[in-house]
Amino acid sequence: MSYNDFEVTFWGVRGSSPTFEPDMREFGGNTSCVQIQIGNRLLIFDAGTGIQTLGRNLINRKKHIDGDIFITHTHWDHIQGLPFFRPFFQKKNTFKIYGQRKSNLSFSSVIKDIMKYPYSPIRWDDMEANLNFKEIDSEDIIDIGDGITTKSIKTDHPDECLAYRIDYKDKSCCYLTDLEHNKEIDEELKGFVKGTDILIYDSNFTDDEYYGTFDKPSKKGWGHSTWQKGVRLAKEASVGKLVLFHHKLERTDDELLTIETKAKRNFKKTIMAREGMKIHI
Ligand SMILES: [Zn+2]
Ligand SMILES: [Zn+2]
Q: Does any domain span residue 55?
């Protein structure tokens, strides 16, 4: 099968924890979830609370749903929507869930245990959809059919995290969330994102927050990057569009708008991720 459309939708763009303050509604407070739709192939990246809204949207389609879900890592803000993803409760649906094992814990046990007694009234096995786990690791290239491939690379983040690149024909998108840059330019990361149409980048901090100022301690070692590093990487790797993502929990709409303006001045093709935003390639 051959498709021409490649559409990226942002369902959750906030980092750390969901937040619904009145001054944060323009950009949104749901945690990480990005949908990539290539023809009728549904790919989902992370399952923060944003996946709940995606679930309601998919249920409205009324057809059976087949999808591939890629988890970057299992910190709460990337998995906490899974027990509330309504398509998991319908027998007719099938999903493959990809992610990394954590030392001696299999990927499936890490996910299933979030619904264990006494943390959840529903157990994983209560979900009726056909759910299959696939363990992946850094540098795996997966052919998911219809000419779509995903590649993964390990990022510098506490407890480890994977970043993904999705390629289809001459179109591509890179999803790099929860990573700490350890050099000005990481050549491996630059090669990974080279020439991509869309680079979704962890911009949790500003450079001032990351390096610290006279009255504020540095955030080095917290596992996140800055919008300035995103701009630098996007320019060096000749990406088509930079999407600033994983907004800091306390960041208001006004602050995000200010950062977006500054970032655009440095790299015109930058946009701040907003909940509900769609990008077509
Ligand atoms: Zn996160
Ligand atoms: Zn994390």
A: yes
